[in-house]
Specification:
The complex is a heterodimer. Chain A is of the alpha+beta class. Chain A folds into 3 domains: 118 residues; 71 residues, no CATH class; 296 residues, no CATH class. Chain A is 62% helix and 9% strand. The longest helix of chain A has 42 residues. Chain B is an all-alpha fold. Chain B has 5 helices and no strands. Chain B is elongated. Classes of the chains: A alpha+beta, B mainly alpha. Chains A and B meet through helix 16, helix 20 and helix 21 of A and helix 3 and helix 5 of B.
């Protein structure tokens, strides 16, 4: 069910506008009709959005370095401090990257200097000043000429990796060019100094990292700043959504609120002396959607929201798919043990972790309980219990039950298809009401024709005594249905066109219905394959365990637990997703669900 | 007859191998995408895990098919007739091939969904629903194997 809404139109003097918006936010019940993104081009808004992005980035950075064991958040979060964090992080990051750069350079230099050993570079300078040229050369061993020792005072420092490191001491310059050798630049620092520098740089980088970690204490401030900014963004968007009137003297703002809250809102607005008018929604209005379901159906709303919210003037299908979804889940999971496990797990979590869990999570746990219960009951049809079959035991109670409820594979196969037929017929009947609600009775006539046609065939097939297949009464019914299908499928149009459309409809129905019904086979196949895998894990556990008591039970338990944990994960996933598809594709299509509604999201702090 | 049993086991081999290979490929395709997407948004690992597991089911269907012939229909015995052997081979080829290609394709759907979630689009539910479209045909093949088995057992 969708809550009935009321349209509110406010007319505000421009000077009172800001105060009015604050009052509206205080009330927190009005869903303001916001302008399209393109229409909102105030610079302020863009700035807020950019700032919020920076804050989110900063949050990510801090979350990466936060030390959960020693994390002590600040007691007094401050928005101002939170706003400064991105700049602080940027400063630290810049410093860190400069230091890292330096570190890489010094490591490279150290590697180049290593073969030459540790010496003081100032000696080289002194030699230069004295008019000597000292060159440091690196050459492949085979290119080294021992004559250089005489000619240029060459001295080998080291031979390593088939390279010779040697120096020459000459009076004249330009030896490197003459000998065509690779020359090493004179170092600025000695090996020892470089080692020290590396250590210092490492320390400095560590300090920056520490500084970043320290900043994590301000995470609450960052969150405060983010939420402040979000409030500002929302406020600016709402403020910008008004239409200026009378040379910008007046502002016109539109909003929606649930009909149930009308009295409360009216009283509040009257006390604040706001001028407003209310109206009931018109078909062309884009009304925001608020669900108003009972306790059972409410649990299935998250599933419905995964697809699309209904439009305001169409029927919300959540209450109608909920029971089917429950049964489908049960059949697709199809194991008493797994059902009990889900039910017990959800019950346990909802009792013992109640304080930690939010309202939405509690709702999901309730849903898991219901689905678990359904799987337990549907599991009784086949008797699977963690892969064992309770009907294969010799316990009289189960043997009695087997006579009452047991379905063999063929029957399960048929049951899936029958459920498909039921849900699709139900969808078609809903389509009639949907069309009547949205377009009027005349537009529902062809669907009524289809329902009559299909129902008559089903009744004639199941109860030939009541309605003989192809008998006079059946023919009359089918004839009436054909008239509705071929002549009333789109009222107000040319009858020839109607017939053409009717033929097209027939083609679609014939191919579509067959495929739709067959699609429900998955319920049987999923239940069967899940059960088979469960029993295979049991055979593995029983077959592989060694013959002594302790080792045997340990191996059995390990295989059993691991196997069933994996199987539960896979089958539960399948048992959620496949019924979802049946709902959204087969059921929604036949019920002609369009969807596309926007969620009711009141303007509040 | 030995030759009948041989033919039947070839079918079983094809069924388990192809559907298993398909699932291995499918989960790898999705898993690779998940690792890439984790770089962008490491908080969505739960979503990625579920989507990556989706193409893993076909391999299990192949195995379930083997189990049906083995334990439910009890045809994998030396007394197997040539018709039964042909049925096992046909069922094996059908489920094997459909499992192979459907899980690879399903893996691609999941991978695209994972990439999109990594980029900040909220498409987890949509991807879940779309990704079971290719899987349906593997399920239909499993149901087909079941019907084949019932017909010849």
């Amino acid at each position: 069910m969708v809550a009935r809404m009321k349209k509110f139109t406010f007319l505000v003097f421009h000077r009172d506008y800001d105060r009015f918006l604050h009052e509206l936010r205080e009330l927190g019940m009005i869903h303001v009709v916001e302008k399209e993104e393109a229409a909102l081009n105030r610079e302020e808004l863009h700035q807020f959005i950019a700032e919020s992005k920076l804050l989110k980035e900063a949050r990510k950075t801090l979350e990466k370095v936060v030390d959960k064991k020693t994390f002590t958040p600040t007691d007094q979060p401050s928005v101002a401090r939170g706003m400064e964090i991105p700049a602080a992080i940027a400063g630290i990051e810049a410093e860190k990257s400069a230091l890292t750069q330096k570190l890489h350079v010094s490591i490279r230099e150290r590697e180049a200097l290593r073969p030459w050993g540790n010496f003081n570079p100032t000696y080289l300078k002194k030699l230069e000043e004295a008019g000597y040229h000292l060159n440091l050369f690196i050459t492949p061993d085979r290119n080294y000429n021992p004559e250089w020792e005489e000619e240029y005072n060459a001295l080998i420092i080291r031979r390593e990796g088939s390279k010779t490191y040697f120096l020459t001491l000459t009076r004249e310059a330009g030896l490197a060019d003459r000998l065509n050798l690779e020359e090493m630049k004179h170092p600025e620092l000695s090996l020892q100094e470089l080692d020290q520098l590396t250590v210092t740089l490492h320390e400095q980088i560590g300090q920056q990292q520490e500084a970043l970690k320290k900043l994590t204490a301000e995470l609450p401030s960052l969150d405060a700043a983010l939420s402040e900014l979000n409030t500002k963004i929302l406020f600016t968007r709402v403020a910008d959504s008004a239409t200026p009137l009378a040379e910008e003297k007046l502002k016109l703002l539109q909003g929606w609120a649930p009909l149930d809250n009308e009295a409360e809102i009216t009283a509040y607005l009257a006390s604040k002396e706001v001028y407003f008018e209310t109206a009931t929604p018109q078909p062309e209005d884009d009304v925001p959607i608020k669900f108003a379901n009972n306790r059972f159906t409410r649990l299935f709303e998250p599933i419905a929201e995964l697809y699309m919210l209904p439009k305001y003037n169409e029927i919300d299908l959540t209450p109608f798919f909920a029971p089917f979804f429950m049964i489908f889940f049960g059949l697709a999971l199809g194991d008493i043990g797994y059902g009990v496990f889900l039910f017990a797990g959800a019950t346990f979590a909802s009792i013992f972790m109640k304080k930690k869990l939010g309202k939405a999570m509690i709702g999901i746990l309730r849903l898991v309980q219901i689905l678990g219960a359904s799987a337990t009951i549907c599991g009784l049809l086949t008797g699977g219990f963690f892969g064992f079959n309770i009907y294969e035991t010799n316990i009289p109670f189960f043997q009695n039950m087997k006579d009452q409820v047991y379905f063999d594979n063929q029957q399960m196969f048929n049951l899936s298809l029958v459920l498909g037929v039921i849900q699709i017929m139900f969808g078609l009947i809903l389509k009639i009401f949907n069309r009547i609600k949205q377009f009027g009775f005349m537009h529902a006539l062809s669907t009524i024709g289809w329902v009559i046609l299909l129902m008559s065939v089903i009744v004639a097939f199941l109860f030939p005594a009541l309605l003989a297949m192809g008998g006079t009464l059946h023919l009359i019914l089918m004839g009436a249905a054909a008239i509705l299908i071929f002549l009333f499928n789109s009222p107000g149009k040319n009858p020839l066109l109607n017939i053409g459309l009717g033929l097209y409809d027939t083609y679609n129905m014939a191919t579509g219905l067959l495929g739709d019904v067959l699609s429900y086979v998955r319920l049987f196949a999923l239940g069967l394959s899940g059960g088979i895998l469960a029993s295979v894990f049991n055979s593995l556990a029983l077959g592989l365990k060694p013959d002594n008591l302790i080792g045997g039970s340990l191996v059995f338990l390990l295989i059993f637990l691991f196997g069933h944990a994996m199987n539960i994960f896979m089958t539960v996933l399948g048992a959620i997703v496949h019924p979802m598809r049946l709902t959204f594709v087969e059921f929604y299509k036949n019920a002609e669900f369009a969807g596309g509604g926007k969620r009711y999201n009141p303007f509040r702090k | 007859m030995d030759i009948n049993l041989l033919i039947a086991y070839i079918g079983i081999g094809i069924m388990i191998a192809l559907s298993g290979i398909g699932s291995a490929y499918g989960v790898t395709i999705a898993g690779n995408a998940a690792i890439g997407a984790l770089k962008k948004d490491s908080t969505k690992f739960g979503n990625f895990l579920v989507l990556t597991a989706m193409p893993g089911t076909q391999g299990l269907y192949g195995f379930a098919g083997y189990f049906m012939f083995q334990s439910i229909f009890n045809v994998l015995t030396p007394e197997i007739t040539s018709i039964q052997a042909a049925a096992v081979l046909a069922g094996g080829i059908a489920l094997g091939l459909v499992g192979l290609f459907s899980s690879i394709r399903q893996g691609q759907v999941c991978a695209n969904g994972i990439a999109a979630i990594g980029q900040g689009h909220d498409v987890f539910g949509n991807t879940l629903i779309l990704s079971v479209f290719p899987e349906l045909y593997a399920i239909v093949s499993l149901a087909g194997v079941f019907l084949i088995g019932t017909a010849v057992a």
